[in-house]
Amino acid sequence: MSQQTVNGDAFENLLREERRFPPSPDFAAAANVHEDIYAAAEDRTAFWADQARTRLTWSKDFEETLDWSDAPFAKWFVGGKVNAAYNALDRHVENGLGDRVAIHFEGEPGDTETITYADLTERVKRAANAFESLGVQEGDRVAVYLPMIPEAVVTMLACARIGAVHSVVFGGFSADALRSRIDDAEAKLVVTADGTYRRGKPSSLKPAVDDALAEPGHTVEHVVVVRRNGQDIAWTEGRDLHWTELLDAASPEHTAVGHDSEHPLFILYTSGTTGKPKGILHTTGGYLTQTAYTHSVVFDLKPESDVYWCTADIGWVTGHSYITYAPLINGATQVMYEGTPDSPHQGRWWEIVEKYKVSILYTAPTAIRTMMKWGSDIPAKYDLSSIRLLGSVGEPINPEAWMWYREVIGGSGGKAEPAPIVDTWWQTETGAIMIAPLPGVTATKPGSAQVPIPGIAVDVVDESGNSVPNGHGGFLVIREPWPAMLRTIWGDPERYKDTYWSRFDGMYFAGDGAKKDDDGDIWLLGRVDDVMNVSGHRLSTTEIESALVSHEWVAEAAVVGAADPTTGQAVVAFVILRGEAEIPDGEDASAALRAHVGKEIGPIAKPKHVLVVPELPKTRSGKIMRRLLKDVAEGRDPGDATTLADPSVMQQIAADLRK
Ligand code: WT7
Fold first, then answer.
1. Would you state the pLDDT for residue 654?
2. Under 8 Å CB-to-CB from 634, ≥6 apart: which residues?
3. Taking burial as the number of CB atoms within 10 A of a residue's CB, which of 14, 78, 96, 200 is the most buried?
4. Which tens digit of pLDDT belongs to each residue from 159-192?
5. CB–CB of 3/511 below 8 Å?
6. Residue of 282, 290, 425, 499 with the most ligand 1 atoms within 8 Å of its CB, for mutation
C-alpha cells in the first residue's frame, strides 16, 4: 500500500474553528440519551451485551458477548440466535404496530406508495417463500441490482429472513462490474428491475444483467425482474421470472427462524487500494445491534413521532444500515425517494420534506454543497419547520456547508434554535456509525465528527502507532473490536488481515488521516491511501488505472483525486498513449477513454478529465509520483521534482495543462 504522509496544512484553518453550538435545553431534556451514557459504556462488554438484549429480540440468548481469541476474527454474541427480518418486521406487527407506516415511497415521476409494517411484513414473507421456491437456501448468495424502490428493501429482508446472503450492487455500476461481483460471491440468484427513472426519463438495469450473464461460467440460476418503468426488455425463458407473478403465487405465511449471531448477513463490495474490489462481509447479531443503537442515540429517533429520511442509495452501506436495517429494527417511519434531487425541479427534496413532514434528514456533504450552489431561495420556498435533526455522512463536511445546512435547512421557518447537526464518520467496513456527536449532549463544532460514540475506542496515532497528543495529526485507528465490524473479506481472510490489521499492531487501520484538536475532538482529514472519495462514493485510483490501461490505445495511466468544490474530490486521469495507437480521425481520445471507464466500472467512475501526456513523473525506481500530479490537477505548482528520473516531465505536463 502506498502511504502518503498526512498533510494537514490545508486543515490548519479548519482547526482554528472557534464556533461551538451547545444543545438547546429543550432538546437536551427530551433527548434519548444523556452525558451519563459515556460512563455507562466504560465497561464495553457489559454495555454491548445490554444493547444487544434491549435493542433486539433474540430467539436464543447468547452465552458470550465477545470472542476475540482468534483476533482479528471476531465473534459477537456467541451462541445467540436472531432473525433480522423478524426484528425489523414481525415483532412490530405482533406488538400492535402493524398499521404504522414503515415506508413512504416517493417515485421520481411522482407516483407514491404508503407501506405499513403489516404490508411490508407480508411482502417480505411472500418474497422469502418465492426465493425458497427457487432453491435459495441458508448461506446462498443473492445479487441485488435494483433501483431505489421498496422491492429493494423487501429483497434484502427476504434474504435475511431465510439466511441467504445479499450482495447489493449499486445500479450505477456497469455490467462488467456486476459480473465480477456475481462471480466473486458465486451468486445463485439475481434480483433486478427493468429499470428506473432518472431526470424524467426511463433508464435501464436489466440489459446490464443480460450482458453480465451473457458469457457462460457463472453460478446464476434465475433472474427475478421487477417491472418498474415498463421498458421493453429481453427475456431469457426459464432463467428470467417476473417478481409480481412469483410473489402473487407465493404464500403470505412464513415463519422466521433465528440464525446464528455470526451468520453472514450480507456482502458489500467496496474499493480498496488495489484493482480488485473487496467483498466486505457483515454478520447478523453485532451488525444489527450497533446499527439499531446508533440510529437511536445519534439521530435521537422517536419512532412514534419522527419521520426519518436518509437520502442514500441502497447500493451503498449507508442504505443498508440506515434505510433497510436500523430504521425498521427501531420501528421508524421513513421516506424512500427514487430519483435525483433536481427532478423535475431543484426544490424536489424540500417539497418531499414538506409533504411528509420529515423530522430527521440524513444526507451527504456533496448534496449539501450542491443545494448551496443552487441557492438558498429554493429551500426557502418550502415549509421545513418539521426538521429537528440533521445528519451528514460520507466525507468531511466543510464548515461553510455545515453552517449553511444549520441555518438554511435546520433553522428554516424562523426556529429559535436550529436543528442540531450530527456529522457521522464510519465506513463500509465499520458497518455502523463510529464517531459522531450525540445530539442533546455534545456541543457541536462545524466540520468535526468529534467523539467516538459510547462503546467505541477510536484513536489517532503516529507512524509508529503511538497515540498523538491533542493538537496533533496522524492516522485514525480503532483500538478495540466493535459489534458491527466487518468479519472478513469474502473469500480472502489474508487480505482482511493485511489490509486492516497489519499497519499498526493490534489496531484496525481505517485508511483515514485525522487530527485531534485541543479538546481532543477528532477532525477527519480524508484518505491517506489510494482511495478517492467522489460525492461520498469510494473509488480506487488503481481500479480506474487498470480500466484505462485495458484500453488498446493506452500504454500507461495515473489517476488522482483532485479537490473539487462540489464533489469533494474529482477523478483526474493522466494517460500516455501507445505509439501505435490508431485513433480514428475526428475521435476525441479523452472522451473515448472516459466512456471506456464508464463501461468497465460504471458512470460513477468516469474521470472528470482525461489528460493525454507524453510522460508521467516517476522516481528513479520507477514509481509514479501521484503527489505531483495531484498538485498540477489542483492548479498548484508541483514544487520539488528533484527526485524524478526526468525532472522536466512536470514542466511539460503543467505547460500542456495550461493549453
Ligand atoms: C470513507 C468510507 C459511511 C458511509 C459512507 C461512506 C469517508 C465517511 C465521513 C465523515 C469524514 C468520512 C472516510 C471513510 N467518510 N464519513 N463523516 N467525515 N470522512 O462509506 O464508501 O465505505 O467510505 O468515507 O474517508 O474512510 P465508504
1. 80
2. 562, 563
3. 14
4. 999 999 999 999 999 999 999 999 999 999 999 9
5. no
6. 425
